[in-house]
Amino acid sequence: MKITDSSVIRFHLKILHGISVKNLEKKKKSLLFGGSKVFGVPLENLARKYIPEFGLVPCFLVDACSFLLERAGTVGLFRKSGSLPRIKTLRAKLNSGEGCLSTALPYDVSTLIKQFCRELPEPLLPPELHAALLKGRALSSPQDNTSALQLLSCLLPARNSSCLHYLFDFLSKVSERCSENLMNCSNLATVFAPCLLPPPNKTEMSEGRLKLRVLVLHTFIESPHLFGVIPKAVMDSMEFLINFPLQDARRGHRKTQSLREKTAPWIPVRSKVKPAVSEQSKESTPGEKPTLRRSIGMETFPNILLFRSYQRFKPDAALPDSHSLDGIEACPQETLKRDLRFVNFSRFARGHGSESSPVVTGVGKLQLTPWRKRVSI
Fold first, then answer.
1. What pLDDT score was predicted for residue 200?
2. Which residues of the chain have pLDDT under 70?
3. 224 close to 151: Cβ distance less than 8 angstroms
4. 3-state secondary structure string, 99-153?
5. In angstroms, what CA-CA distances link 154 with 1, 192, 209, 235?
6. Bridge-based pairing state of the strands 55-58 and 48-51
7. What stretches of the chain show up as alpha helix (H) in DSSP?
């Protein structure tokens, strides 16, 4: 997976706040609109102006907010609606590219701003983020609320983020004059909730869910300086993950291996799963030669108890006829290696049948077959 800003932010949201967010960077088909139309047009087709602190912002929004900022003391601004006939005339002039805001009334312009936000083909706050925004605002701690909403605002596309940042900063300045216009942060959030966070169905129109939507906008209007700003802790972790030296090497190794498995099935791939070995397969048959291991473990050698049973034979002594040697006396310890014979053991077999040498089997037992050759260790 390619490490990007959004992936690191989504990781922090999941770990710190338990909020899962899908990737919003999928390419969508852009809608093409010609002319100078303002309302109902995607942001990328609008004439935009670069504002150093915010980025590219639609020209209509900049002109309308600048006009209202000089009249921010108007009582009930954004709460009171303008005249519908005047608003219809202003819309027609704006869609034809004619500048007409300088002679308009504050209530008409404020109504035009709400219609502009409401009629965008793609909402400024994508519907995919609505559930995460409400969950972040519903967290118990106020500090967690602000942190979660700040991280979620960083996931917005650049054009949406610039436009919203400019709008929230403007509304914050309007709320500073609430003693004159009677529009504080809560009142402004209530007015703009249907425009920026409209409920998708009747279930989301309950009183509790609507209140959460207002609180989300209240946080952004109250703290516009945090909107779209990645916290320093996330920036540090992002820089570490992107510059991690082994990341590219590991990712490249996995890609090479998966490419080999998919595109070159004739190339043998060594399986990491070892097949189970049955007990019967562990015992070698008389005709098979035992395999040699690179790492010789204790299973390569006979049972350690076998070394405690031994028989001292003299070179010229005749072998007994019986196969049972339970009564033979033990010899001193120092002659053990010289006198033990290991033949026809499962890992030291030298022959089969009646022509074999002495065989050590069992625990403490020594069985004999006709003598051919003395084998000493």
1. 83
2. 1-4, 25-35, 241-377
3. no
4. CCHHHCCHHHHHHHHHHHHHCCCCCCCCHHHHHHHHHHHCCCCHHHHHHHHHHHH
5. 20, 20, 23, 12
6. antiparallel
7. 5-12, 59-69, 84-95, 106-118, 130-137, 142-153, 158-175, 178-181, 185-196, 207-222, 232-242, 245-263, 279-282, 336-339
Query: Per the structure block, which two tokens stand in for 375?
Result: 């084998």
Q: DSSP for 330-364, please give it.
A: PPPGGGHHHH---BS-TTT----GGG---EEETTT
Owner of token pair 């925004």: 133
The helix/strand/coil state of 322 is: coil
Nearest to 127 by CA among 10, 17, 22: 22
- Residue 21 one-letter amino acid: V
- The amino acid occupying position 34 is G
For residue 50, give the 3-state DSSP assignment: strand
Q: Are 142 and 219 in contact (CB under 8 A)?
A: no
Nearest residue to 136 via CA among 195, 205, 197, 185: 197
The pair of three-digit structure tokens given for residue 100, joined into one six-digit string: 């007409």
Q: In a 3-state reduction of DSSP, which class is residue 29?
A: coil
Q: Which residues contact 231 (CB under 8 A, 6 or more apart)?
A: 147, 150, 151
Question: Residue 215: its pLDDT value, please?
Answer: 96
Give the type of residue at 116.
Answer: F
Q: What is the pLDDT of residue 241?
A: 67
Cβ atoms < 10 Å from Cβ of 54:
20
